[in-house]
Specification:
The structure holds two protein chains of two kinds. Chain A is about 40% helix and about 25% strand. Chain B is mostly helical. Chain B has two domains: about 180 residues, no CATH class; about 80 residues, no CATH class. In chain B, about 75% of the residues lie in helices and about 0% in strands. Chain B is built from 15 helices and two strands. In chain B, strands 1-2 form a two-stranded antiparallel sheet. The longest helix of chain B is centred in the C-terminal third of the chain and has 27 residues. The radius of gyration of chain B is 20 Å and the shape is globular. Classes of the chains: A alpha/beta, B mainly alpha.
């Protein structure tokens, strides 16, 4: 069995009387793409927020590689190799594609306030290295032709790709993708899936949150289904699709096409 | 901003017109400001007084610009101006400390207060941040008034000396100009560095910046403290310029003035607060010939500028240079 890069165990969070997530367990193996699905309100985004440090969990533990990182701040998790993307497109709209991706590499460049402020030699070397890395990302993700275009002028689908490019610029070990295919046409969905596979082939483990079952089953070999903030079941996409509990969760509660 | 005599004109052209244009404007402004006393010293001490005020206020306005660039509008700058002013005034009149030491202390104490208060106020965003900094400003004024044993209350502190080497109005002007240039270099250094890049990312989206590995909160606190440190220096210089301070010198009006300087001057460039302080300080003074309409005219110009120049006075320069380029091409 290969190494587990991300382990989530017993994670719980409530907002007042609402138990958004309770006793969530799952893990991601090195080089794996894991899907996290569930009907609206199942707690998928909350789970991402808890793991990525945006929210502090009430209970449970998150382990990244060999280190327990529960409750760490988002930026320190990025420094340790765990990056997340956002449901809506999250880019710096006025900046060029190139400088957007360079900003994604900020964790690689920034190792303290004073070196950054006075621009030390080490700071310059780190920036130069990041600039080289940005070029390879632009090549791999097919963004070279729009490198100087302000992000806000890109079509929606390519902004999503740019979001992914920003996320991998800091050389993460694990990325958490919050609905990378939301709002895209079928053709664009295939393209994003392709980009995610390419990212994965660089050795990045991926957690994909979505409720587009076709998208998820094309991408992941293992899927975790969330329902009412709990893990309903885990398995191969085909098993999940046939599981009566999952069908009930999707069709019995919300009219959400699976 | 430093002159580079070794650089040939051709090399300067190669560096991109925008960059060298900015350098040239900086040099031009410094030359004009440096020649200011020479041009007017013979006749008009009033103009020298206005010039000194403009240079002084540009320090505080540029320092506030750093906070603006993070996307936050602070109304607490008068409080930190006051902390700097009182620190140097009390040290100079009370303990007889030498002027340079009192000057350094004023910046450090103000910066320290920024470092202590920053973590509290910077947890707030948008209108809540604005309101809280407003309260902070009012609170500081009350402390200056009510802590009579230290600050002499509403009576203020009188007889604040100017530095012995800079006691003449012209030399004091040059001292202020030197501090302002230094302040501009510091602010520019911050904005051009990777910290400046982080500031820009924070303004666009704090959550995206955070997820790109920017330690958002720490950087905000650090920049806030640097901003307070710089305005503290203005406080010290201003106290020695006027030789007298009181709580009335540090009211909400002062905070508002710094904010308006930034808004009217332009928020996207360090030139904004410089232009803003020229405009806000010099305009009402120069309108004194029409004293009964002074504030009416001032108000009209302010409203017009805000209506037609959302990017501030800086935008006017940008538009003019764009027109010139078009005409030249």
């Amino acid at each position: 069995m290969s190494r587990q890069v991300l382990v989530v165990s017993g994670l719980g969070k409530s907002f007042g009387a609402l138990q958004a997530i309770s006793d969530l367990h799952f893990h991601v193996e090195d080089g794996e793409i894991v899907g996290l699905i569930g009907p609206n309100g199942a707690g998928k985004t909350t789970a991402i927020n808890l793991i990525s440090g945006r929210l502090k969990p009430d209970t449970g533990m998150v382990r990244l590689e060999d280190k327990v990182v529960t409750g760490f701040s988002t930026n320190s998790l990025v420094q340790r190799g765990l990056v997340r993307t956002f449901q809506s497109t999250a880019v710096y709209p006025e900046r060029s594609v190139w400088s957007n991706v360079l900003r994604g590499a900020f964790a690689e460049i920034y190792k303290g306030f004073w070196p950054a402020l006075v621009n030390t030699g080490a700071q310059k070397r780190r920036r130069d290295a990041a600039i080289v890395h940005v070029e390879t990302i632009l090549d791999e993700l097919g963004l070279q032709d729009v490198r100087d275009v302000p992000a806000q002028q890109l079509p929606y689908g390519r902004q999503k790709t740019l979001g992914l490019a920003i996320a991998i610029a800091s050389r993460p070990r694990v990325i958490l993708l919050d609905e990378p295919a939301a709002g895209l046409s079928a053709e664009e969905v295939d393209r994003v899936a392709d980009v995610i596979r390419r990212i994965n082939s660089r050795g990045v483990s991926v957690v994909v949150v979505d409720h587009n079952m076709r998208f998820i089953s094309g991408l992941c070999r293992r899927v975790v289904v969330l329902h009412h903030g709990r893990e309903l079941c885990t398995g191969k996409p085909a098993e999940i699709a046939a599981n009566p509990q999952v069908i009930e969760a999707y069709l019995g509660t919300v009219n959400e096409p699976a | 901003m430093t002159a580079r005599p070794a650089m040939t004109a051709a090399a300067a052209d190669n560096r991109g017109s925008r960059f060298s244009a900015s350098h040239m404007s900086a040099v031009a402004v410094i030359v004009v400001m440096a020649a200011w006393p020479g041009a007017i010293a013979s006749s008009e001490s009033f103009l020298l007084y206005v010039g000194t005020l403009v240079v002084l206020y540009s320090v505080g306005a540029m320092s506030l610009h750093l906070v603006f660039r993070m996307g936050q509008v602070s109304f607490a700058h008068a409080a930190f101006l006051g902390i700097g002013g009182y620190t140097s005034a009390l040290l100079l009149t009370g303990s007889g400390l030498s002027w340079p030491l009192a000057f350094c202390a004023s910046g450090l104490v103000s910066g320290l207060f920024g470092l202590l208060l920053g973590p509290i106020v910077l947890r707030l965003r948008g209108v809540y941040f604005v309101l809280f900094t407003f309260i902070l400003c009012e609170f500081a004024e009350r402390v200056f008034t009510d802590w009579g044993s230290l600050t002499n209350g509403a009576g203020g502190v009188a007889g604040i000396p100017a530095p012995p080497a800079f006691s003449s109005p012209v030399s004091f002007y040059y001292l202020c100009l030197g501090v302002a240039v230094l302040c501009a270099l510091i602010c520019r250094g911050v904005l051009k560095s990777d910290v400046g890049e982080a500031i820009d990312a924070i303004r666009t989206s704090e959550s995206l910046a955070e997820s790109n590995g920017v330690p958002v909160f720490r950087i905000k606190v650090a920049i806030f403290a640097i901003s307070c440190l710089l305005v503290g220096f203005q406080g010290a210089l201003q106290a020695s310029f006027v030789h007298y301070i009181s709580p009335a010198s540090y009211t909400f009006d002062e905070s508002l003035r710094f904010v308006v300087m930034n808004v009217i001057g332009g928020m996207n460039s360090l030139w904004g607060p410089v232009l803003g302080s020229v405009f806000i300080i010099a305009l009402p003074e120069l309108l004194r010939n029409w004293v009964e309409y002074q504030w009416v005219l001032y108000g009209v110009v302010l409203v017009l500028a805000m209506r037609y120049l959302p990017g501030g006075l800086y935008e006017l320069g940008e538009r003019a240079s764009a027109l010139l380029r078009k005409g030249g091409a």
